[in-house]
Every structure is written in C-alpha cells, then in structure tokens.
Description:
Number of helices of chain A: 12
Number of strands of chain A: 12
Helix content of chain B: 25-40%
Strand order of the largest sheet of chain B: 6-7-8-3-9-10
Low-confidence stretches of chain B: 1-18
Largest sheet of chain A: 6 strands, mixed, barrel
Oligomer: heterodimer
Distance between the termini of chain A: 26 Å
Mean pLDDT of chain B: 84
Order of helices and strands of chain A: HHHEHEEEEHEEEEEHEHEHHHHH
Low-confidence stretches of chain A: none
Distance between the termini of chain B: 26 Å
Strand content of chain B: 25-35%
Number of strands of chain B: 10
Amino acid sequence: MFLVAIKMLFGDRARFLGIVMGVTLACFVIAQQGAIFIGIMARTTALITDTGYPDIWVMDPKVQYIDDIKPLQETELYRVRGVEGVEWAGRFYKGMIRARMENGTFQNCNLIGIEDATLIGGPPRMLEGAISDLRRADAVIVDHVGAKERLSRSGPGGSRVPLEVGDTLELNDRRGIVVGISENTRTFQSQPMIYTTYTRALSFAPKERKTLSFILVGARPGENPKQLCERITQQTGLAAYTRDQFRWVTIDYYLKNTGIPINFGIAVTLGFLVGTVITGFMFYNFTLDNLRYLGTLKAMGAGDTRLMYMVLTQALVVGLIGFGIGVGLASFVGFQTRNSTLAFVMPWQLLVGAGAAVIIICMLSAVLSMIKVLFLEPAIVFKG
Amino acid sequence: MSLTATHNPMVPPASAPREIAVSCRGVTKTYGAGSSAVRALRGVDLEIRSGELLMLVGPSGCGKTSLISVIAGVLDRDGGECRVFGQDFAAMRSAERTSFRGKNIGFVFQAFNLIPTLSIAENVSVPLLINGWTMSKAVQAAREVLGHVGLGDRWQDTPTRLSGGQQQRVAIARALVHHPRLIVCDEPTSALDHATGERVMELLRESAVGAGKSLVVVTHDSRIFKFADRVASMDDGQIIRIEDKSQGH
Lengths: 384, 249
C-alpha cells in the first residue's frame, strides 16, 4: 500500500507540486533566515573564535560581551599569573581607533594589541607577511576585507586599490606601517581589524587611566579550564570564562539586548506559518480529491490504521522532497553569497531544526486529512 | 402488492440450496433525526442464497443502496438483524468488520472508482495488497484476472485510457481477484451503453456467480433483469416483491 500511496501522490502532479512548493518555501525561509541569524551571531563572537590559542579570557566582572570593554589595571595581570594552574597569561588590548584616509576622511577600525613578547592573541591566518613582523617599528597587520574595502585607496578611473604590505596608515596622528594581511572572520560591525603589539596599541590609542582590556590565559597541561576559571574568579575577583563560555556570554547579550532574535524569529515564524497554511491547505484538498478512492479502499477492507499510514507516508514524502529542495536552495544562496557581506552559517543543528519544522508542518497538514479519513464513511462509495 | 411466488417471497424457494449467504431480518435504517429524519429501510427481510445472482430494483430513494451498504458492512443498521456468512457486522469491532470485508466481499461501483494514477493491474491488485500480498505477486495475480476479463494486454494502461465498458471490466476484475464469497454491485451498467452493459453482465454472471459465490446487483436497468436468479423489488424502504427467474438459466 506504500506504493499505492506514493503513486496517488505523484499522479496528481499539480497538487503534488503545490504541496512540495509549500514545504519548500517554509524550509527555505527557515533554513536561510536561520543561517543568516546564526551567521550574525557568529560574527558577534568572531574575535573570540579567531583568537584561538588562549584557554581562558579574564576581564572585569561587569563585562557583558566582547565589545563591552571595561579596562583593568595592569597589575591584575600579575595577580592572574599567580593563580595556581595558570601556565601563562598575556595582555590583550581591544579598542576603537580612527584611521585617517588619504582623502582626509576617517575610518573607524578595531585596534587589537597583543602581548609583545609572545604575540599570543594575533590573527588566525596570515595571507601576507607573518605575525612576527609586528616586531618591526610601527608595524600593523590589517585584515584582508578591511584592506580590500574600507581601508582601500582610490585608484585610476575611480577603482579601489587594496591596502598592501608596505603601505602606511595614519592612526590617531601616528604612523602605522602595514607588514601583513590577515584573514579574519568578519565581525558584527564589519569594521577593519588592525593588529599590533600591546605596547604599540597603547601608543596609537587615546590615553586612558586603565588600558588592559582582557587577560588571555593558558592553563597548565591537564588543568580543567572551567575549574581554573572558578579559581581565578575566586582569587582575583575578576570574571574568567573559557573561550566557549565567553562566546555564549556574548551571544546571550545580543539575544537579550538587541532586536535581532525577534526580527529573525518573526521571519522564521512567518515562514513556518505560511508554509504550514499552504501545505496544509493543498494537502487537505489533495485528500478531499482522493476521498472517493480512500473510501473505496476502506470499503474493500483497508483499515483506518492502513489509511492513516498512507496519508502519513504521503505527507512525509512531500516533506522529505520539500526539505531537500528548501535546504538545497538555502545552501545555494549561501554558497553564492559566500564572498559577500551576508552573514551565513548553516551548521548541522540548523538542518535538524529545519527538518523538525518540516516534520511538524507535514504532521499538522496530515492531521486534518487523517481526521477526515478517520471519520470517512465507507458507504460514501455508493453515493453517486 | 402482487407476489409472483406462492411461498414467502423473502425466503428462497424450497428447491433452492439450503446454504444462505446473507440473511436480513427486520433491518431498519434512519438518516437524521427529529422532523428531518428519513427512514431509508423499514424492516427489510431478505435472504441471499449462496450461488445466486440477486438483483435489487426499485425507484430512486427506495433504499436499495442503503440495503446493500448494510449487507456489505459499510453502513451500520439501526435495528433488526443481518448476517453475512453467519457473521453479524454489528457484533464485530470496526477492525474485524474491515478485515471481514477485505476477505469476503468484492465491490463493483457505478462510477468504477478506479484510482486514476495506478495502472489497471495495480488497481486490480489493490484487494490483494490490502490482504497483505506483495506488489509483485499481487500484480501477477491481477494480470491473470485481467486476462480472464479480456484486458490482459492492457495491464499497464491507466484507467483514463480505457472506455467505460473496459473500466467496468477492470472494476469487475478487481472485485474478483481475491475470490470473495459475495460481490456487491451498485448500478454496474448505468454508465454503459446497452451492448456493453450486456457484456459486463455476462461477464459478472460467468465469473462471479457459482459454487459458494453470490452476487447482489442494484440496478434500474430492466434490460439486465434476465441475468438474475431472483429480482427483489423495493419501495419506500421495504421489499415489496421477489421474482424467481432462475428457471431461465
């Protein structure tokens, strides 16, 4: 009877395509909007993700997310180093700085200062130059998107010439020489990332009484990072998070304090509702169209369970096809826009979520039809 | 009211075989309630012998369809008793009743009710699939029955490519394929021209009536009465006359 159900479904092509389109639309919107939402959330934590080496980030207890800088006194570094289980601890500066462009305009940039001696906290990948080049005088490393877009120079015919190794930048009236181009994850605000040493960063940055943004900590081998975090907090009064914890602290802030989840939630909910309505309506009509045949099957001895199974099979098949096309389309859009500013991350969890949504849509659509079939009088077959 | 038989018309003549396929006593059925209630069956007594072709005739709305629906177990009666092969549908659970229908009753409908998206072999194999056969075995058996009704070479076609007469032959094949003991036909010739109707009835008579098999045909078409062993006339929810035509066969 499985094949009978499938042939009944595929045989009515117009209706079949309509139902699949409903599921596809819902799945596409859920997957695509979900991927953009996750992409944006990933960008909020881009610096944490890109700064891969330290196990632990230590900061002022009032810090709510990565861009919420509440500088520490330099002496805090030594207190952290004194905690049992800390293998090493380094300074990390994060601030905003204005880069003066050749045409006189200014561009706000993220300025990252990393520990002078160890250079821990640097960019994740170098496209040109090396991190050790930061030891040269006035040296800075610029991320490739910033170099290509916002920090690029005007070229002949109005074209944009990317910032290259050897070019100079004017940062807060001081000269910075580009010694490397790094490949970074785009940040939430999409501002260029400029890396330099911690000491040089302080010379670029406006003067402040406290300057230490974060302390990056490496745990001793065999040390449990979470327990070490608790120990650091206990002994210093500072907040200490593992990299993963700090990512979630940041994401949690954006979820609770911005309209991003609501906006995307509305889009995803609308996609779900519209998909459910279209699919449910089309599927119910498909069942109504086939009621005479379902009644015939019932009269001929097909029980309610078997008919439910047939309806459910039809719903799941359209769901599976719609899911495949919807996710495929969303992935295609993501692939086509991979080099654009669009934030798009599609982890497997999103696919599972979209699949679950599709199953719910199909079940909701099938329930109406199943009720109709359940209460179907087989005597209908004798009515003209 | 004129009765052509001298004995009680609701009971087979004494010469008939003793085995009774269907036995209805005082069957009643009312649709709706209160002032809008319609009494479709008003105490119907009827017996259908094993191995006979009984036709139910009468004007529209007289209760023919309600009666075969009750006999076929697709409609619950309100009162009376109706036993099919000794089994009372009212005493069965829904699943048992469905299973009983699947094994013992075949259906031929006025509008054929062939599933248009299945091939005719697949349509014919549906009763076997319902009884748990695999698709390949069921289609094989269906092709044999289709050969018997003269459509062996059309087994891959869909019903929409067949004429009305051919579609009804497919429907008959579907009713026969699982060897039911009772076949219920609702106006099997009303959508067919006279010649095709005659051929369909010949086929039904030849294939569906025999030892241990019974056929009930609801019809308006007086031209096919000659195929019946008995003709039961209904009016206003009751059987008013039964004519024995078995001498002609």
